[in-house]
Amino acid sequence: METMKNIFFTTCLFLLCACGEYQLEQEENGTTGETESEVTYTLQLNIGSQDNAKINYPLSLYMFDDKNNCISQESISEETSEYSASMPKGKYTLVLLSGLTDDNYSYPLEIIPDSYITLNNNNRSDKPLQMGKASINLTQSTRISVTLSYVVASLTFTLYGIPDNAITTEVNVSPVSSGISFNGDNKNDKRQCTVSCRKEGNRWISDAVYIFPNESSQTHLSINIELPDNNETYGYTYQANLKAGYPYHFTGYYKGGVSLDGEFQAEGWQPEVDCEFGFDEILPDEGGDDHTDGGTGGNGSGNTDDTETPDDTEETDTFIVPELPDADTIWGYFYVWQVTSLSATESKAILIAPDQWYTLAADAPGLLEAYEKDDISGWRMFTTEEATAFRTQFQGTVNELNKFISEYGFDWFKYTDGARYLCNNGQSTFSLANNRILDAGKTVDYYLRPIKTVRFKLK
């Protein structure tokens, strides 16, 4: 009997050991009873933004598989510094969105990479949308970084000279896109958005609005002014398409007065594009090419081409004087702005005339050609470089300069109400109130101050 018990115990011990070896072999193979498709890996996500742009939470995350099915849709709260998830092996596309609010955007019925998120309110939003994407081949636990960048353009408007009895003022912008796909493609359906302006002092301004750009070589603006007895509409064409990631500040002039107020130099955005234009009394033909050109050249930036006359090649008059004039003094009828010594007996100077005009850029050359003071002719405009130097020198002390020259009967230099002066042969403008060199508009009046380079020589 004892012998039978020993045999039974030995047999059970053998079977028990055999089962233990089989389970260990399963763990080494990584299956533990699961198929390969059921094995999951950890996906960790680090979130950043281009140029440290502000990220608006919560974030919206969409995960698409290799068959373009949306397999995951989640919200990431502001408190979550890092996102992680367990997912099966496979290829995925991750789309991350910031600023996707229900009151501004509508979701498609079927969420696939090619479907469009559309704007709810007149093809514009009051919050900027950022997007980031990543393609993932998940074969093991993986950490990825996604960088968000703006997929909208920002628009702001400042309008001057609107009639005092105006009731409302708004700007229609076209063409714009009504939506963007999860792939990041704009819809390009040539829609129009309306931007309302409000009156502040002597100007009408808008808050920043955000639009999806449209692939077009031109952007049309239609300014609509509601008056008690009638409505007026004015058209302007910006000779370029709007680009995502850029803030555009359009400044329009109904009559007189020029200004460029407002800043939009935020992190994550490209440099601001400033665009000046004058109102033309026409009804825009949306989509046409026959609108008035405000002369921005398509980019709104300073025009600094090589049409300016360099000082070293300019023909200069020579004046024999008993004493070489100093800078910042009055010589005869003129203000001596800059003086460059050529020798002990000779110098070169830039004179500024006592007179100025308020004129269109196209009329400036004729005024300068006809201008003569104290039998001295051959006057010109500031070059871009001279305009920058003059502004830098007097931006904070223009009152002192005006007080000094007014004692000699000079016209004051204008700097309030956004006054701008022509430079660069009438192609550009500058202001004593800000640091921008801008392209001159064709239908806008600017101040014109004659200057002239001369030589002085001792008797």
End-to-end C-alpha gap: 145 Å
The number of helical segments is: 4
User: What percent of residues are in strands?
Assistant: 35-45%
Helix-and-strand structural type: mainly beta
Basic shape: elongated
Unreliable segments of 5+ consecutive residues? 1-34, 256-266, 281-307
Quaternary arrangement of the chains shown?
single chain
| Strand elements, count | 29
Helix content: 10-25%
| Integer average pLDDT | 81
Major beta sheet summary: 9 strands, mixed
Task: Give me the Rg, rounded.
Answer: 34 Å
Characterise this structure.
- With 459 residues, the chain is mainly β.
- The chain is built from 4 helices and 29 strands.
- Strands 10, 11, 13, 14, 15, 16, 17, 18 and 19 form a 9-stranded mixed β-sheet that branches. Strands 3-2-5-8-9-1-4 form a 7-stranded mixed β-sheet, with no helix packed on it.
- A hairpin with a 4-residue loop joins strand 25 and strand 26 (428-430).
- The longest helix has 28 residues, at 2-29.
- The N and C termini lie far apart (145 Å).
- The model is unreliable at 1-34, 256-266 and 281-307 (pLDDT under 50).
Give the SSE map.
Elements: H1 2-29, E1 40-49, E2 59-65, E3 70-76, E4 83-88, E5 90-98, E6 105-106, E7 116-119, E8 130-138, E9 142-150, E10 153-160, E11 168-176, E12 179-181, E13 191-200, E14 203-205, E15 209-211, E16 219-226, E17 231-238, E18 247-253, E19 273-278, E20 317-321, E21 329-331, E22 334-341, E23 346-352, E24 357-360, H2 364-370, H3 384-394, H4 398-406, E25 421-423, E26 428-430, E27 438-439, E28 445-448, E29 451-458
